[in-house]
Design a protein that fits this description.
5 domains; 5-stranded antiparallel sheet; alpha+beta; 4-stranded antiparallel sheet; single chain; Alpha-Beta Plaits
């Protein structure tokens, strides 16, 4: 028999991102715990709001599956005497496992024969097991920050837990946690107050929605919010601006969403659009409205958590707060414009980058030198170099302006705006903004090469400085945003087609830092750890781009710096596997034969002297390898280049097959053997232009 399980953890209001992060954890941890507890189920899903985290398990077995365990006993020659009678050792083993001697068996285990017993452990009732595992599942949830509150078992959670509901069908599971005992009661919407009693697990969602005015399913709540914003915007004759991030956040800020709208003074639209949206979206969680041409209107939609009359008054109240914030923003903007952007640069000395790495002014000076170095490495035209150097000088100046100190998310945006109003060229202004991009996965990319270069240098300085001081991200903390910096660094190199060797950039960054700061780790230790860290981010990017895991391993194993070239190699291999699978797999097999012989010979590298090749098959392979090498693109950078490389390498397969059919590599004569191994090394190196194909997994493996 199976039933539905519902577990609801009621708590004080969680920040939206806490709830969003906790729900997949709750689902995953409980699913794992149920499997380990031998409690099969058909499906599991987590739902919830800022006031409750819920997991619903359907088709959960009423009992554990029985556990049959094989227990190894004494060796057979010790368990029975020469006449086959059980010894004291056998009798003692039977007593220990609680079985009769007749039910014991002799089994071959390894190189010996042993007495074994099959011990069956009968499954317990699900409610008993659930009462034990659920508290551990909840205790294991991870939040960005934890709270403790007075309770007997000193539980820590994102916010204090105030009630527990746990139903298995119509039966209450006696879970005890945080000084609470689970029951069948839950809280309705806070505007209703009191308690709601849920009779059966199957009634949970319907009871909450119909009697408690709580839409507990986040996807439905999100859809309701989007539709409400669109309908309200249509009523006002406008089009809504619905940032996905805001929609996700508001979804976890309400349980029964309904719209309210309002207006503010149109004069505030004279501010840069990004400033108005920052106040509306980030500060006040409102959805801006625009006209048919996309121009902002002095109107907004706000989602309230409730229903009934009062929406107009609520909209007026929100509008007052928005107007106050926009008034502040207007004041900051006007004050900042009293001075040109370059005048703010010297003030960066009072802004600490890190107490052991100097001020932001020190960082800006390092950036200038690093940018100059990278421009040389890439051979950028003089105009782009000039733009990059000027952008590097000004890129952090807006950090000490009033606007950015109040609205930190506008860094770079205000730098661009103030640069333009200070008479800087459009290219410099855009590069100032570009150097921050992308800020997160899926964000827009830099529009300009100078901006991309400044951004690369900025992130390299931060990464090297932090790693040189021993600040590596942990599983739960990344206060310097190093994962994001490394991810963005790789994305810029890939998407802007920059074939820069990352190690070269990072070593130069280390040298510049070492001139000014006392670094704890030496250059090689820092770079080894940092490059491994960045490699992990690149691996993530490649998998997210649809590259099979084994091809990612093949490419990274053969060298992944420059990042751009590693990515193009991976894309070429993936395309070949999808479009010409048989040919691709045949090439992998051919490479394996080459690699296996080299490994069997000890892996020592040898050179090949073509004048000492004796058989037609080996001479033919050498000539084919030379032909392929001569036709290879000299400096492949695009997926097309690497696709051509791959096609040329695949053309070696017939010669490789013939070589192995007709030539004995491990010849007794050491000179001949070494020369043939040298030939295989030559072939292996051609394959390695694309990757270590021995890492590729073939069907059936």
């Amino acid at each position: 028999m199976v039933r539905m399980l519902v577990l609801e953890i009621g708590c004080e209001d969680l920040p939206a991102r806490f709830a969003r992060l906790a729900l997949p954890q709750l689902e995953g941890r409980l699913a794992k715990a149920l499997r380990e507890a031998r409690l099969p189920f058909s499906s599991i899903r987590a739902v919830g709001t800022h006031r409750r985290l819920t997991v619903i398990v359907e088709g959960l077995s009423e009992r554990q599956e029985d556990l049959v365990e094989e227990v190894k006993g004494p060796p057979a020659d010790k368990a029975f005497d020469s006449e086959g009678r059980p010894t004291k050792a056998a009798e003692g083993f039977a007593r220990r496992v609680g079985l009769s001697l007749d039910s014991l068996k002799v089994k071959e285990i390894g190189k010996g024969r042993y007495l074994v017993a099959e011990v069956r452990q009968k499954g317990r009732r699900a409610t008993e097991v659930l009462a034990e595992i659920i508290p551990e599942v909840v205790r294991g949830l991870d939040f960005p920050k934890f709270m403790r509150w007075p309770c007997p078992d000193r539980v820590r959670f994102g916010r204090p837990i105030r009630w527990l509901l746990c139903l298995f069908g119509d039966e209450v599971v006696p879970v005890r946690l945080a000084g609470l005992k689970a029951g069948r009661k839950t809280r309705p919407h806070r505007l209703l107050g009191g308690w709601l009693e849920v009779q059966r697990a199957e009634d949970y969602e319907r009871t909450l929605e119909e009697r408690g005015r709580v839409i507990v399913e986040p996807k439905r709540r999100r859809k309701t919010i989007r539709e409400a914003v669109e309908e309200e915007a249509h009523r006002l004759g406008a089009k809504p601006v619905i940032p996905a991030e805001l929609l996700d956040e508001v979804t976890y800020m309400c349980e029964w969403p309904s719209p309210a709208s309002g207006e503010f003074d149109p004069s505030f639209l004279e501010l840069p659009r990004e400033v108005v949206e920052e106040v509306l979206v980030r500060a006040q969680k409102c959805f801006p409205l625009s006209d048919g041409e996309g121009k902002l209107l002095p109107k907004f939609v706000w989602i309230r958590d409730g229903w009934g009359e009062g929406a107009e008054e609520i909209g007026k109240g929100v509008a007052k707060v928005i107007s106050a914030r926009l008034s502040d923003a207007k004041f900051f903007f006007e004050e900042d414009l009293k001075r040109p952007l370059p005048d703010y640069v010297p003030e960066l000395r009072r802004l600490v980058f890190h107490e052991r790495l100097g001020s932001m002014l020190d960082k800006v000076r390092r950036l200038g030198r690093l940018v100059d170095f990278v421009c040389d490495e890439l051979g950028l035209p003089e105009e782009e170099r000039r733009v990059a150097l000027r952008a590097a000088e000004l890129c952090k100046a807006d950090l000490v302006t009033h606007m950015v100190q109040e609205f930190t998310e506008l860094q770079g945006v205000m730098g661009r705006e103030y640069a333009l109003r200070s008479g800087e060229p459009q290219e410099v202004a855009q590069a100032i903004l570009d150097h921050y991009l992308p800020r997160f996965g899926g964000d827009v990319l830099p529009k300009t090469v100078p901006g991309a270069v400044v951004g690369l240098c900025d992130r390299a300085d931060t990464l090297v400085g932090c790693f040189a001081l021993g600040f590596r991200p942990t599983a739960t903390a990344d206060p310097f945003g190093l994962r994001r910096a490394a991810l963005s660094l790789c994305l810029v190199l890939i998407e802007k087609d920059i074939p820069l060797r990352l190690e070269t950039l990072l070593r130069r960054a280390y040298a510049l830092l070492a001139e000014e700061a006392k670094l704890e780790r030496d250059e090689d230790e820092t770079l080894t750890e940092l490059l491994d860290f960045v490699k992990g981010r690149l691996e993530t990017i490649l998998k997210e781009r649809g590259i099979d895991y084994d091809l990612v391993g093949a490419v990274l194993s053969a060298g992944w710096d420059p990042v751009l070239l590693a990515t193009r190699r991976a894309e070429a291999l993936q395309r070949k596997r999808e479009e010409e699978r048989e040919e691709f797999e045949a090439a992998v097999i051919a490479f394996r034969r080459v690699a296996n012989i080299i490994a069997q010979a000890g892996g020592e590298r040898f050179d090949c002297d073509p004048s000492r090749l004796q058989k037609d098959a080996e001479r033919a392979l050498y000539e084919e390898a030379e032909r392929v090498a001569s036709r290879m693109p000299k400096e492949p950078t695009s997926a097309r280049d690497f696709s051509k490389c791959l096609d040329l390498i695949l053309s070696l397969r017939p010669a490789i097959d013939r070589f192995f059919d007709e030539v004995l590599v491990m010849e007794k004569d050491p000179e001949i053997r070494r020369n043939r191994l040298g030939l295989l090394w030559k072939v292996r190196d051609l394959f390695f232009i694309l990757g270590d194909l021995s890492k590729v997994v073939l069907p059936g493996e």
